[in-house]
Specification:
The protein has 369 residues and is of the alpha/beta class. The chain has six helices and 14 strands.
């Protein structure tokens, strides 16, 4: 069981154009010699990692990607035109595997990373290349080479911008169904969620982010108890964690504060980085709590839990407070994205300054005679 989005595609690079065997026959040059041009290169297929792409859903419906062939050469020393390359944009974190032999072709871990999937065929040579002092009228030419063809499996292991954490029956599945297009199984018993659920949250027509719901965690998850431990490793690169707490458990013996502290303890056992990651507290099921008791119960929980970050009060069932939470999440993700872009620009500026400060008299940069 893996927390991935998967698709299978076939990529076919273009064939190279054939070389041409031709001879110049002009009015005053009846024996002008060979003038057959080369064939053009076939189009190659590349993968490019794009952080603005969230899912592999496009490749589930578009399974074959074929580049065009190069043009054949012509007479009068005319070379065939090379075909354009095709670039397939994939989410950051996509693992590209050869379906035939199981080899890993590329792991798209960084934005802008480009990897070759299928190389286009080289164009054939025209007879102009075979002219020698003893062979002045060559009729040889070569055919264009075939482009590469591959069957690939795409596995996306890092998909979500936001990850949901919580004990079983905390209301994570209800929340993700309330704010996104995901339709997870919802029932009134623990461990309803057996597989990760992914949903695209639409803030507006052009604004969205991906949210992931993993199976609920229990005490001892870091040692393998329950199901959620199988998916904790896939939340290490999410941008934000939402710690959802059931503030109105069915059983009176259940202490929400104790459960919340136990979950944080399991995160720390598994990976300290998960605890240090931005984490917001979401107090759910407030519709079950009498209105006159809500403020006191929320205040007491936050005080006992000792949480210092943002706190949101919602009811996933009635959608109260969910839109405000969604807007806050998108604003946070945009701020993080802009901060990363500014850091990249600053780094590029510093590198440019370093290049401009090079001493031209430095012997390391002198041209060798």
């Amino acid at each position: 069981m893996k927390f991935i989005d998967e698709a299978r595609i076939e990529v076919i690079a273009g064939d190279g154009g054939n070389g041409c065997a031709s001879f110049c026959r002009e009015k005053f040059r009846p024996f002008g010699g060979p003038d057959g041009g080369d064939g053009g290169r076939g189009g190659s297929i590349w993968a490019i990692a794009d952080r603005n792409v969230n899912t592999l859903v496009d490749y589930r419906y578009s399974k074959m990607h074929r580049a065009k062939d190069g043009e054949s050469g012509r007479g009068a020393d005319c070379y065939g035109k090379g075909a354009d390359d095709i670039y397939l944009r994939m989410p950051v974190g996509t693992l590209i595997i050869d379906e035939v032999n199981g080899d890993i072709i590329a792991d798209m871990t960084e934005h802008g990373q480009v990897e070759l999937l299928a190389l286009g065929g080289e164009g054939g040579w025209g007879n102009i290349h075979f002219k020698t002092s003893t062979n002045r009228a060559p009729r040889q030419k070569t055919e264009g080479k075939e482009g590469a063809r591959r069957e690939l499996r795409l596995e996306l292991k890092v998909l979500a911008d936001v990850g949901l954490l919580g004990m079983p029956n905390a209301g994570k599945s209800t929340f993700i169904s309330a704010v996104s297009n995901a339709k997870p199984k919802i029932a009134d018993y623990p461990f309803t969620t057996l597989h990760p659920n992914l949903g695209v949250v639409r803030v507006s027509h052009e604004k969205s982010f991906v949210i992931a719901d993993i199976p609920g965690l229990i005490e001892g998850a870091a040692e393998g108890a329950g199901l959620g431990h199988q998916f904790l490793r896939h939340l290490q690169r999410t941008g934000l964690l939402l710690h959802i707490v059931d503030l109105a458990p069915f059983e009176d013996t259940v202490d929400p504060v104790k459960e919340a502290k136990a979950l944080v303890k399991e995160l720390k056992k598994y990976d300290e980085a998960l605890v240090d990651k931005p984490r917001w507290l979401v107090l759910n099921k407030l519709d079950v709590v009498p209105e006159e008791e809500r403020a006191k119960r929320v205040k007491d929980f936050v005080k006992k839990f000792g949480f210092k970050g943002p706190v949101f009060e919602i009811s996933a069932l009635s959608h109260d407070g969910t839109q405000e939470l969604v807007n806050a999440i998108y604003k946070h993700l945009e701020q993080v994205k802009h901060s990363e872009q500014r850091a990249e620009e600053t780094q590029m500026t510093e590198e440019a300054r370093g290049i401009s400060s090079i001493d031209p008299d430095d012997p390391r940069f002198k041209i060798m005679e």
